[in-house]
TrEMBL record:
Belongs to the sphingomyelin synthase family. It is found in: Membrane. Signal peptide: none annotated. Keywords: Lipid metabolism, Membrane, Sphingolipid metabolism, Transferase, Transmembrane, Transmembrane helix. InterPro entries: Sphingomyelin_synth-like, Sphingomyelin_synth-like_dom. This is Sphingomyelin synthase-like domain-containing protein. It comes from the Eukaryota. It holds the Pfam family PAP2_C. One of its GO terms (cellular component) is endoplasmic reticulum membrane. One of its GO terms (molecular function) is sphingomyelin synthase activity. GO terms for biological process: ceramide biosynthetic process.
């Protein structure tokens, strides 16, 4: 038994090392895209913090979701955060599965390049929307009378750039018309829908996205329009960005080389080159015939 465990552990370690070597090579080729996507996450947080200075509390807007869904209350607002955390961690673990499992369909670096592209495109639209129109935040700490509803003018630039982490992220106000949590959730679900392999997990993922939407409204963290805008906008962003990006190599057959995906121009030139070779071979065959 000990010998079997040791042998399997050795195989697993070799698999992890081989996968790490492959992913490091891909990261060396794509580090600019990964770094740009991560930097924009900070820019998105900075923009959300900046709009808090413009936020002016007021009466909560009339909302159909607030009439239909019972209010969870401030003490149960953590439920939606727990669901989001579960979705986020589950997706991260799935993107790391090539390091452990033999059955592999994706490259971790390439899938994160794609995910970051989806997030950046969606977050740019989100920043444009909440800076175009400031709405009174429906969250409990954004209502009239709360000390966090308005931010005093910053005394220095450092106060703005540091975003007052983590309080500035958790207790933000004004970044409405588009739910940030739903951007991440829908990008993760849509990515797994295309590149995942388990049908039951895909169905559970969509169910969790719906539950997350309802919990956000029930927790009064966003208006219903914020959720509705996120649902159709993120789907459109993923659809159009997918059409612009080259297709990812499929590793499920076990024969795909460790190469970056070819662009459409590269594929066309490669096809023309192969056709040209075939024509030359056929012409030689005809010339050799008696």
């Amino acid at each position: 038994m000990t010998l079997y465990i040791g042998r399997e552990a050795s195989k697993l370690w070799k698999r992890i090392c081989a996968e790490a070597t492959t992913e490091i090579n891909l990261l060396l080729d794509n580090w600019k895209y990964v770094l740009a996507g991560l930097i924009f996450q900070y820019i998105h947080g900075l923009a959300s913090h900046g709009v808090h200075y413009l936020h002016r509390p007021g009466p909560t807007l009339q909302d159909l979701g607030y009439f239909l869904l019972p209010e969870l209350g401030q003490d149960k607002a953590y439920i939606s955060e727990m669901v989001f955390t579960f979705v986020f961690l589950s997706f991260v673990l799935w993107t790391l599965h090539p390091f452990i499992f033999k059955s592999k369909k994706i490259y971790t670096v390439l899938i994160w390049c794609r995910v970051l592209a989806f997030l950046v495109a969606s977050q740019i639209l989100r920043i444009i929307t909440f800076y175009s129109t400031q709405l009174p935040g429906p969250n409990y700490h954004c209502r009239e009378g709360s000390k966090l509803a308005r931010l005093p003018k910053p005394s220095n630039v450092q106060e703005v750039l540091l975003i007052n982490f983590p309080q500035g992220v958790v207790y933000g106000c004004g970044d409405l018309i588009f739910s940030s949590h739903m951007i991440f959730t829908l990008v993760f679900v849509l990515t797994y829908q295309k590149y995942g392999t388990r049908r039951c997990i895909k169905q559970c993922a969509w169910l969790l996205a719906i539950i997350q939407s309802l919990l956000i409204v029930a927790s009064r963290k966003h208006y219903t329009v914020d959720i509705a805008v996120a649902w159709y906008t993120v789907n459109l962003v993923v659809f159009f960005v997918n059409k612009k990006l080259p297709e990812l190599p499929d590793r499920s057959n076990g024969n795909s080389p460790v190469l970056l995906p070819l662009s459409t121009k590269d594929k066309d030139s490669k096809t023309k080159e192969e056709n040209h070779k075939l024509l030359n071979v056929n012409s030689v065959d005809h010339a050799d015939r008696p």
